[in-house]
Specification:
Elements: H1 6-16, H2 23-31, E1 35-42, E2 46-55, E3 60-67, H3 76-90, E4 95-101, H4 105-114, E5 117-122, E6 133-139, H5 144-155
Parallel strand pairs: 3-4
Antiparallel strand pairs: 1-2, 2-3, 4-6, 5-6
Bound molecules: coenzyme A (COA).
């Protein structure tokens, strides 16, 4: 993700999030050395999705991922998540975590497909709706079964 992509990124964020990140927040993510953000592009430089990752040095956190509504359910979210997990491996880290709204069935389904499992709940975490956050982890990124699953997800 580069500054030139941010107009498209923010448009998707505003369409898909109940509590959208601002342009300023994305700009600051691009400046952070411990943050990695990626875009999915359609022809003619159209941004159709993005994903952001934060590393603590011990594990990585998927901090945001979204696909433009008209491009959803075409495998773009899956490819973005593959890229974020691959980046975690490239950083030498073996665990990825994220938080998902308890009612966000589509995202939860995507994460479960990768092998993320629920390990905790932050009650009433989301101020806009009072929803719980489900804390999910994908551990052992270098384990053979995790590697095999990732390989098959990259191909699809
Ligand atoms: C979650 C999100 C990024 C998924 O992106 P996507 O490109 O539509 O996902 P994919 O097409 O790669 O789907 C991969 C798998 O995830 C699951 N999935 C994705 N969307 C789903 C839906 N609406 N219902 C059920 N399962 C879904 C399915 O298992 C799907 O595989 P399948 O299509 O072969 O059944 C997208 O729905 C989105 O942007 N949502 C709004 C923002 C958001 O909630 N972000 C997550 C915050 S934690």
């Amino acid at each position: 993700m580069k500054v030139r992509h941010l107009r498209g990124v923010v448009a998707i964020e505003n369409q898909t999030s109940g509590h959208p990140w601002s342009l300023r927040l994305f700009e600051s993510e691009l400046r952070q050395t411990n943050s990695r953000c990626f875009v999915a592009m359609a022809p003619h430089s159209v941004v159709v999705g993005f994903g952001c990752l934060l590393t603590t040095g011990f594990e990585t956190h998927v901090t945001n991922i979204a696909v433009a509504p008209q491009f959803q359910r075409h495998g773009i979210g899956q490819q973005l998540l593959c890229r974020l997990v691959d980046e975690s491996i490239a950083l030498g880290l073996q665990e990825v975590t994220l938080e998902v709204r308890a009612t966000n069935a589509s995202a939860s389904r995507l994460y479960e497909r990768f092998g993320f499992v629920e390990e905790g709940v932050r009650p009433k975490y989301y101020a806009d709706t009072g929803e719980d956050a489900i804390i999910m982890w994908l551990r052992g990124l270098l384990e053979p079964e995790v590697q095999a699953r990732l390989a098959s997800l990259r191909e699809k």
